[in-house]
Write the structure tokens for this entry.
Amino acid sequence: MMILNQFQLELVFSFIFWWVIFLSILGLIFIIYKAAMYSLKRFVGKFKLAPNVTNGIRFILRLIMVLVGFSTFASMSSDLIPGGIPGEVTVIITAAISTVFALSATSVIQNFIAGIYIILTRPFNVGDLVQINQFEGIVDEISLNHTKIRLRSGGHYYISNQTIINSKITNFTLPINEQLGVQEHIRHLKDELISREITRYAMTIELPKAAPEWTKRVLAEVADQFNVVLSQPVQFITTAYLHKVIVSVIIVSEDPELVLKQKDSIVEAVYMRLFK
């Protein structure tokens, strides 16, 4: 009887010892998790990541901690629980955690990769006037997860970087040498002028086929009206058809904000003068 009690006592002490080891490992995992969260907070403050990206990273870190904790428990289960955890149960739980981790990490990782691609290839920069699908505005922010576009209304639209790389992008703001090429008439310009950026925006409007001279006069008056606001004259290129006239409107300015604000006003001025 005494031998049995002594054996049971040694077994209890063994379980206590291994539980202390296991809890110590869990404590270390928790400290590492807290340190990772603190580093993430500083990283978010430095690079201004979007809240959904931050939450996604936090969730992934928690899943990693759970996976490490469970793996530790599974490997020590024979010392912590009589008989240990059946191998089938361990495989099922590990597979479930791994699947959740993979699904949750996919979108975050894809956006990160897309963000790095956009930063490296630079299809546009902050301050450029762009059109991404049907959204048109000024680029206010480019992060690893999303790009923030300021619309003409003043509101902001957030587009995920993964969506952007699969979208049609039109950048109206480019260096002068890219806008004009190396044509003879700009070769005399100084290097500092050629290195500057301008925004060249083109759109078309449809007008009824009225008196050609009257239409020409209206377009000239609108061009003169907006020459005061814009750094370059507004250009109108007309193409006459049987019952209508298609007018290509080209707006050039060093300030993309002006182009975004004035483009609709130019169209409105044409129609108001033509039909007054």
Observations:
- Residues 2-47 form the longest helix (46 residues).
- Strands lie at 129-132, 135-142, 146-151, 156-160, 169-171, 173-175, 197-208, 235-240, 244-253.
- Residues 174-274 form a domain with the Alpha-Beta Plaits fold (CATH 3.30.70).
- The chain has three domains: 2-121, 129-171, 174-274.
